[in-house]
Design a protein that fits this description.
Oligomer: single chain
CATH superfamily of the largest domain: P-loop containing nucleotide triphosphate hydrolases
CATH topology of the largest domain: Rossmann fold
Number of domains: 4
Bound molecules: adenosine-5'-diphosphate, magnesium ion
Structural class: alpha/beta
Radius of gyration: 31 Å
Strand content: 15-25%
Strand order of the largest sheet: 11-12-10-13-14-9-15
Number of strands: 21
Distance between the termini: 14 Å
Shape: globular
Largest sheet: 7 strands, parallel
Helix content: 25-40%
Number of helices: 23
CATH architecture of the largest domain: 3-Layer(aba) Sandwich
Length: 709
Amino acid sequence: MAGEPTAPVAPSLAGMPGVNKAVAAKLAKIGLRSQEDLALHLPLRFEDETLITPVAAAPPGVSVQCEVTIISSDVAFRPRRQLVARAQDDAGDLLVLRFLNFYPSQQKQLQPGAHLRVFGEIRHGFFGAEMVHPRCQKVEPDEALPQTLTPVYPTTAGVGQGTMRRLVQRALTVADLSETLPEALLRTHKLAPFADSVRLLHQPPHVEFGESIERVQQAAWQRVRFDELLAQQISLRRAYVRRREHTAPRLPSTGELTNALLTSLPFALTAAQQRVCTEIRQDLAQAHPMQRLLQGDVGSGKTVVAALAMLQAVENGYQAALMAPTEILAEQHYLKLQQWLPPLGIEVAWLTGSLKKKDKTAMLEAVASGQARVVVGTHALIEDTVSFKQLGLAVIDEQHRFGVRQRLALRQKTIQVETTSGAADTAGPTGTAGTASSVHQLMMSATPIPRTLAMSLYADLDVSVIDELPPGRTPIRTRLVTAARREEVVARVHEACLGGHQAYWICPLVDESETLDLQNAIATYEALRTELPDIHVGLVHGRMKADEKSATMEAFGRNDIQLLVSTTVIEVGVDVPNATLMVIEHAERFGLAQLHQLRGRVGRGAAESSCILMYAPPLSEMARARLKVIFENTDGFEIARHDLQLRGPGEFIGARQSGLPMLKYADLEDPVLIEAARTAAEAMLRDYPDHAERHLQRWLAGAEELLKA
Ligand code: ADP
Ligand code: MG
C-alpha cells in the first residue's frame, strides 16, 4: 500500500563474537538487536554465589550454594529413571543430588571424587538433605568465589543463561553507554549517571547482611525507568509536534449553526460538555490540525459535542465526517443527527458497507459534490471510492476500536482527501511532507483511562474529559445472582416489560466466530420467546446481515420489541432511554470495560434501572475480583483504575497497541515519574534536540517508525 511506512531494517547481532545467525535471530525476537539493547537487557533477579553455605545450615525455601565432593553416583530406575549422586561437604554432612532429566555429560561431571559447587534449594526429605536439579559447576578446591551476585536474565529458548550472561557482560564493555541527558536536566531531576546505573543493575556489589539489593539499586532503577519513560514521551511529543506543523483550514466559530442546534435541544449542556466544547472550538479556529481525544464515560453525552464541532466546520463551508466502528453505532449516530441537523438545513449522508449499490452511488455523489455537509458511516468512509468536496473535520467515535491498520488508513485517507479535493486552500504550500495540510481530528472514547496512563499513552494528543453525567439520571442498581436463579431473573424481565419498559439480555460472545456461543445466543432467544409469549423478543448478533440487524435495532428503538437478546454487538453506543433492565448472562466471562459499557446501556432515562449480572459458579479468582469491582463501582474511571490493577498495563492497553513500545521497566502507575519525564521531554525537544535524538535511538531504535501511525 502506497505511503505505508516500510518496516525499518532491523539491525541484528549476527556476526558479533559468539553470536551465529540462529542465535541472533532468537535474540532479535526478544528485541535484542544491538550491543546497546543487550546492555539495557536488565536481570530479572540475582543468585548469590558469593557465599558457600554449609549443608546443615541451609534455610528452607531459599536457594543456596554448597561446595561438595561426590561420593557416589548412580542411575536409579525407581520410581523412574533418574541420576542420583551422594555428596558430602567440608563438615561431612551428606547431600543427595537428584536429576530427573540428565545428559551423559552431567553423569560424567558427577564422577566420585569430583569437587563441585552446587546451587539450589535444599529440602530435608526422607533420605536426608537433597537438592533436585541443582546447577553444578566443577571447581578446584579453594577456587575464589565471585565477588558480585550472579544475574539471571530473561531469555528465550535456545539461548541459555550462560550465553546470555556472557553476551551482556561483553556488551557492557563495548556498548555506547554515554550520557544522553544534558547536565542541567540531570541536576533538575536528581538523576544518577546513566552508565554507572546500568552497570550497577547488572552487577550489584555484594550486599551486606540486612542490606537489601533493592535499596542499593534504587537510584539506578529510578534512572533507567526515567529514561525509558522519557524516550516514550519524547517520541509521542515529537509525533504531536510534527503533526502540528501541518496546516489545516481555520474554522472559527460563527455560532450561526451551533447556537441554532443548542436552542433546539430539549436539554442544556452540562458544565463539562460546555468546557470541552470550548476547548474544541478554540482548536478548530487554529491553522493547524486539531488532534484531540474526547474522553467521557458511557452516557456522558459525547455525541452532541461531536455534532457541535461538525457544525462549526459546516459554518465555515467545510464538510465533517463521523466514523464509528460498527454499523449499529453508525446508524444510531445517523438517526440522532437526522433529528438534529436537517431542521437547520443541513443534509446528512450515510455510508456503510451494506448500502445497496444504487443508494451508495447517490451518497457518494452527495459527498463528492459537497451537497451533504455531514457524513456518517463505518469504515466504508475510508474506502478509496469516497472523496469529499471539502473535508474540514473527521470525528472518530470509539477510536480504540479501530485497529492500527484502520487508524493508519484513516490518516492516509484524510490526507488523500484534502489533496484530491483541494480543500487545502489555507496558508502554506501543500504536498510537501513537512507542511502538508490536514483535516482536524476529534477522537472519542468511552473507555476511561486513568489519568497517569492517559498522560503516558496519549502524549501525542490533547485530551478533553467530560467528567460529569447529564442530570436526572438515577443510579443503576447492580445485582449479582447465580445462574441457578434464572427463573427469578426472567420474572423480573417480564415485570419490567409489562410495566412499559424494555430490557436487554446479553449472551457472551467472546469471538464472533465462535459457533458455540452463537448457538447459545440463539437458544437463549428461542427459550425466552417461549417463556415470555406476551412480549416481543428480538435477537441481534454479529453474524446477522446488516439490514436485519438495523431493522431489529430500529424496532427496539420504537418499542416494538421489548426484550432484546444480543451478543456483545450492542456493547458500544446504543441509546434507548426506555430500556431499564440489563441482564448479562455469564457475566464472569466478560472483561471489566465490557461490563461497564454494557451496564451503561441502561440508566439513560429518568426511571430507575437495574443491571443483573448472572454468573455460573465456581468463579476463578480473577472473575470474582472483576465482579466485585463492577458491583461496587459505577464510575468508569474508578473501574478502569481497578482494571489496570487487576490486569497490569500491558493487557489493559490492548487495543491501543498501535506500535507503542511496551515499557519494560517503568511503571505506568507512577504519576510522579511520568510527570517528570513529560516535563523533561518537552525541555529536550525544545532546547536539546540532538540529545533527544540520541536518547530515542538508544531506547526505541526501530520501534519509532511504528509510532507514527
Ligand atoms: P455517549 O457519551 O455515551 O456517547 P450520548 O451522546 O449517546 O452518550 O448521550 C447519552 C444520552 O444523553 C443521549 O440520549 C443524549 O441525547 C443525552 N444527553 C446528552 N447531553 C445531555 C445533557 N446535557 N442533558 C441531558 N441529556 C443529555
Ligand atoms: Mg457514544
